Amino acid sequence: MTGFPSDLRYTNDHEWLKAQGTSWxxxxxxFAVDQLGDITLVDLPKEGDLVTKxxxxxxxxxxxxxxxxxxxxxxxxxxxxxxxxxxxxxVNSDPYGAGWMIEIEADESSEVDELLSAADYTTHVxxx
Length: 128
Hints:
Strand content: 25-35%
CATH class: Mainly Beta
CATH architecture: Beta Barrel
Number of helices: 5
Distance between the termini: 12 Å
Oligomer: single chain
Helix content: 10-25%
Largest sheet: 6 strands, antiparallel
Number of strands: 9
CATH superfamily: RNA polymerase II/Efflux pump adaptor protein, barrel-sandwich hybrid domain
């Protein structure tokens, strides 16, 4: 199991969260990408939509399955990675960079503190 970036926070559902100024950038982890296989479609909310921690904010389709994406924090979507519409494979090739999905302006910064550290996430996925 390769290490996960230590500057990110993680969910049990394999999303990651990274500070982007006053917002938080969200994507899925390399572990999730490996489980999904070749990604063919990413369905994301619109800018301005509200998302709720732990609730579905979109879906990701691969050659293997369709999976829900879950919000790591509650808040308003401030940016959507429109490039994924034409190039969903960016999630496969660069899940922590070009494959990011949305940015959220969090309602409660304390929700971020409840997420997993890289070490805790590594322990979580090694148990699966």
